[in-house]
Design brief:
The chain is of the alpha/beta class and 754 residues long. It folds into four domains: 105 residues, Arc Repressor Mutant, subunit A, CATH 1.10.10.650; 188 residues, Tex N-terminal region-like (Orthogonal Bundle), CATH 1.10.3500; 122 residues, Nucleotidyltransferase, domain 5 (2-Layer Sandwich), CATH 3.30.420; 118 residues, Nucleic acid-binding proteins (OB fold (Dihydrolipoamide Acetyltransferase, E2P)). Helices cover 48% and strands 11% of the residues. It contains 31 helices and 15 strands. Helix 13 crosses helix 15. The longest helix is centred in the middle third of the chain and has 50 residues. It is globular and about 105 Å long.
Length: 754
């Protein structure tokens, strides 16, 4: 079945059949998307992960279509309804919608008004009427009167015949296709508040009397209306202009102005109002929900990718603090590998004496354990704790960083945390997570369900299977893009490495604990149940920093080690010399090493790795500080220019943490001096920006922000961007302050602590 799909997928994705076939073959053999993208470029023509994933997903869709086609053919054959013509139509159907339209008239169904009319023997009368020849319908119907069958009069016979015609209209493939297109282009979303729910559903106020074309409704508003309906505050309909819909159907089925045609016209109207309109409304609701889901998932995936690939501070001795007022601040100290060394509870925000005692403990821990950085969670009491630490006059060499702690509490109560720290309580585990996030966000965040990290858009409203699949894909992509140090990685992190999974990850950790650190990638072959295929898939993404072979710390795959050995041998040097000395690398003639299996794409990758073996592809860590003196909502005033961190990107704007425990919203209209269609064009998650406060609503805990700059032509809030773009674009008049609506999702995003 896959062979037949290759040309179709190649055409749809603008690829060559050879590329699609090679990709399909590799995936069928068990290769992962990261492995194919990185180590099989010659086979696929250097397709990237996006293209490979598209091929994989389209193959799966076509295989599902094939399975459904086979099930339908089997059902029709078993019931003796399969003709050669029908079989040909089914085999040529290219989408699930078309396939189901073809099958609809033959699908086993409950007794309908049409089936009851057929049982009464009225189908011949329906056929006479549907032909719309010159005739007297009442006279023809009189012949079908049969009280024994429940047909008491000619009018009753005509009514039954119209029921049959109405079902024919509803099941007509052309009619459904045209009506589907009509709904897609002309239908309107209409939402209304349920009268007795006005006060209770006030957060949906925007949708109390709302109309919007189906064709242009954005993802977030579709999901908002659907959620309001689901929660019982709104009614939601999808309605096109009825007269146009009826006119479209009449043009298909009504052939003239005779008496028989009038009966058909009555049937068409009944079919639309009783059958077809509700069927189309259901279809369009599902189609728009799918479209909205795809957009919401796309936003979530991109946000998650940016967060997972946030710059790491690197291996430092960390003192991490999970702040609190009444219960105090939980302090943990971690070594450069993230190992827990010490725990302490301090109470710096309760009294002067407690603060002095807390300060002494912090100074002592910093000195004794060689602390190089302090991570403070940004939750409750975070800014106050940060101010306290800054007032201690610690060494300027010690960096102080506020860390987004979204999801830390979820991790601290998880099975993974209990397994890692069985003898510690949830507060210690949470503080450890905060510290490790600063050290390496990716390694720590993979331990948490992505839906708990706080960067999703409507994650509970979208189809959960599609969401999980997409999120798993992006986590796998990020983990393998960065690479994993096999001797320090957690079981959870190893799980996402190409070719491994939970059981092999557990086996690696157990083997490491029993036999000590791996000295080489070859040593991985001794891990129980880690066979040749798993080794092939995983080895290139696993790193051994101080391994026996210097290539073990690079992304060069072990299968290519002989090539590097040959390069070194031909130059009369060692592999280590090849890594250290650029002059040696400049003398390499890559064409000399091209073979049937290895081409220039792989050789160029090898050469790039030799220049910077094991390099981290993430950006350099840059310290960030919130504005001093702005620590709570009451401190924020309109007109203030403040530094902030982008915490979430949605279709309607960007959420920015300015250090007051309440994210502000930069509406999409306030993101830039130029028109912006997609907020991700301007900023990314975890980016530091400058914002201007437009409005503060203390009662509803809302902060409206702008990233438009008073400097000419500036797009984003960073000073670097302002300087670059000041010279490129003439000064533009500022738009009026944005009006922020009662968006239920915006309300949910504004505060991580509600």
């Amino acid at each position: 079945m896959t062979e037949a799909h290759i040309p179709k997928i190649a055409q749809e994705l603008s690829l060559t059949p050879k590329q699609v076939q090679a990709t399909a073959d590799l995936l069928n053999e068990g290769a992962t998307v990261p492995f194919v993208a990185r180590y099989r470029k010659e086979a696929t023509g250097s397709l990237d992960e996006v293209a490979i994933t598209a091929v994989r997903d389209r193959l799966n869709q076509l295989m599902e279509l094939g399975k459904r086609r086979e099930a339908i053919l089997k059902s029709l054959e078993e019931r003796g309804q399969l003709t050669d013509e029908l079989k040909e139509k089914i085999l040529s159907a290219e989408t699930m919608v078309v396939l189901e339209d073809i099958y609809l008239p033959y699908r086993p169904k409950r007794r309908t008004r049409a089936t009851i009319a057929k049982e009464k023997g009225l189908e011949p009368l329906a056929q006479l009427l549907f032909a719309q020849e010159d005739m007297d319908p009442l006279a023809e119907a009189a012949a079908f009167i049969d009280p024994a069958k429940g047909v008491e009069s000619a009018e009753a016979a005509l009514a039954g015949a119209r029921d049959i015609i109405a079902e024919w209209v509803n099941e007509d493939q052309t009619a459904r296709a045209r009506m589907r297109d009509f709904y897609s282009s002309k239908a309107i979303f209409k939402s209304k508040v349920i009268p007795e729910k006005v006060e209770e559903g006030i957060k949906y106020k925007d949708y109390f009397e709302w109309e919007e074309p189906v064709s242009t409704a954005p993802s977030h508003r579709i999901l908002a209306m659907r959620r309001g309906e689901k929660e019982g505050f709104l009614t939601l309909r999808v309605l096109p202009p009825e007269e146009e819909a009826l006119g479209l159907l009449e043009a298909l089925f009504v052939k003239g102005e005779g008496l028989a045609s009038e009966q058909v016209r009555m049937s068409v109207h009944d079919s639309y109002k009783r059958l077809l309109s509700s069927s189309m409304e259901t279809e369009i609701r599902l189609a728009t929900k799918k479209r909205a889901d795809e957009e919401a998932i796309r936003v979530f995936v991109e946000n998650l990718r940016q967060l997972l690939l946030a710059p790491p501070l690197g291996q430092k001795n960390i003192l991490a603090i999970d702040p609190g007022f009444r219960t105090g601040c939980k302090v943990v100290c971690l070594d450069r590998q993230g190992k827990l060394l010490h725990t302490e509870t301090i109470y710096p925000l309760q009294s002067e004496k407690a603060a002095a005692d807390a300060g002494a403990k912090i100074r002592e821990m910093c000195k004794r354990l060689g602390i190089e950085a302090i991570a403070v969670g940004n939750g409750t009491a975070g800014r106050e704790t940060e101010s306290f630490i800054r007032g201690l006059d610690l060494s300027k060499e010690i960096q102080l960083v506020m860390v987004n702690e979204s999801g830390a509490s979820v991790y601290s109560a998880s099975e993974a945390a209990r397994e890692e720290f069985p003898d510690q309580d949830v507060t210690v585990r949470g503080a450890v997570s905060i510290g490790r996030r600063l050290m390496d966000p990716l390694a720590e965040l993979v331990k948490i369900d992505p839906k708990s990290i706080g960067v999703g858009q409507y994650q509970h409203d979208v189809e959960q299977g599609a969401l999980k699949s997409s999120l798993d894909d992006v986590v796998v992509s990020c983990v393998n893009h960065v690479g994993v140090e096999v001797n320090t990685a957690s079981k959870r992190l190893l799980t996402y490495v190409s070719g491994l999974g939970p059981q092999l990850a557990k086996g690696i950790v157990e083997y490491r604990n029993e036999h000590g650190p791996f000295q080489s990638r070859e040593g991985l072959r001794r891990v129980p149940r880690l066979g040749p295929k798993a080794f092939e898939q995983a080895a290139g993404f696993l790193r051994i920093r101080d391994g026996e072979n210097p290539l073990d710390r690079s992304a060069v795959h072990p299968e290519s080690y002989p090539i590097v050995d040959a390069m070194a041998g031909n130059l009369g040097c060692s592999v280590l010399d090849l890594i250290r000395e650029e002059e040696f690398r400049k003398r390499i003639d890559l064409k000399q090493y091209v073979s049937e299996k290895v081409g220039l794409p792989t050789l160029n990758d090898i050469l790039a790795e030799l220049s910077k073996p094991g390099r981290d592809p993430r950006e350099q860590f840059e310290p960030f500080h919130f504005a001093e003196g702005v620590e709570k909502l009451q401190d924020v005033k309109p007109g203030m220019k403040l530094p902030g961190i982008v915490t979430n990107i949605a279709a309607f704007g960007v959420f920015v943490d300015i250090g007051v425990h309440q994210d502000g919203l930069v509406h999409i209209s306030e993101l830039s001096n130029r028109f912006v269609k997609n907020p991700a064009e301007v900023v990314k998650v975890h980016q530091g920006v400058w914002v201007t406060v437009l409005d503060v609503d203390l009662e509803r805990k809302r902060i409206s922000l702008s990233m438009k700059s008073s400097q000419p032509g500036s797009d984003a809030g960073s000073k670097k961007d302002e300087k670059k773009k000041e010279e490129k674009r003439p000064e533009r008049k500022q738009r009026q302050k944005a009006t922020f609506t009662n968006n239920p999702f915006a309300d949910a995003f504004r505060s991580r602590n509600q």
